[in-house]
Amino acid sequence: MRELVHRIEAATPPDRDRAIDALRAFAILGVVLGHWLVTALVFDSGTVHGASPLQHMPQLAPISWAFQTLAVFFLVGGQVATKSYASARARGTTYGQWLRARLGRLFRPVAAVLTVWLVAAGGMLATQVSPDVVHTLVKLVLSPLWFLLVFATLTAATPIVCRVHPLWPLAVVLYVDVYRFGYGGAAWTGWINVAAGWLVPYCLGALWARRGAGTSLRATGWVLLVGGAVATALLVLFAGYPASMVGVPGAAISNLNPPTLAAVTFGLAQCGAALLLLGPLRRVLRRPALWAAVALVNLSAMTIFLWHQTSMMAVTCLGLLTGGTLPGLHTVPDGGSWILARLAWLPVFALMLTVCWLTFRTYEQPRRGASRVVREGRPARTGEMGRA
Known about the structure:
By secondary structure, this protein is mostly helical. The protein is about 70% helix and about 5% strand. It has 18 helices and four strands.
């Protein structure tokens, strides 16, 4: 392990902003832990259905404030993509070459998980597993993929959207919500916010890339944090928006599906907090061991994201081999005992995710010219961390 840490440290370019990687790792791990905590599979009378503790215990809504971290991911994505595209143009790289390189790392691991689950679903149906059960399991795997489609679309549109000020998509979200909730407009118009809502932090990241880390960055962070938090509190307390920042089964309104104005203002508060954390993160990540952990998460971010639901479901199904229903794994999430039991299962989910990572992480690596932190026991090439 000490040798691995030294290799990662040596492979990292001196000018790499390690705080950016830390924010991306935080965003991915936040989504993973959030799903593990608020998603449950309940087995009852031979059937299985999804459930959420937020449905039975709405007082747990603050959990979603800590683990709904997608805005930070889009903030970092906009910042990195904008700088990457500007650098590619300076080197003479065409738009097509740049886009293929960026999207390839997204869609190769997606193809792997879709192939595995296509075979698994076919096998379950062939062995007389109920179509409703198969639908429930496949839906849990596929539902997180929506955000990758949005992210890929915004990445492809980077040359255009990198010049858009974040206030413009924010105004679109405001208008759509006023129309939907204030004037009883058509529900389908809310899906406009799938693009507009996540365009806000993405454009904010692009603006950050264009202006650099000037003296106003900290002031901007405080404005976003305080302004976003106050706006979100007002919307929840007086405008009827849900307190939960993730979807809750049976709820009349979801802040996330599609994104609402409350989700966007909450995301702005998160972006503000992320900007304020840049300085402390840069200081902390001078420690090689901490930086190695962040680097490894980033190099396998998509693998971790794509297989975390499969890991949870694998543990849940293997638990049935005990012959009964296990607390926190198969039972209805309706009390404090379920919460304690689910917390105890998290390390088991993580262990299964490690197995999936070891099996499928190669699909996230570039096909040719690739250099990894560690490959078959050899040191990484020095350019890898700069390209990751």
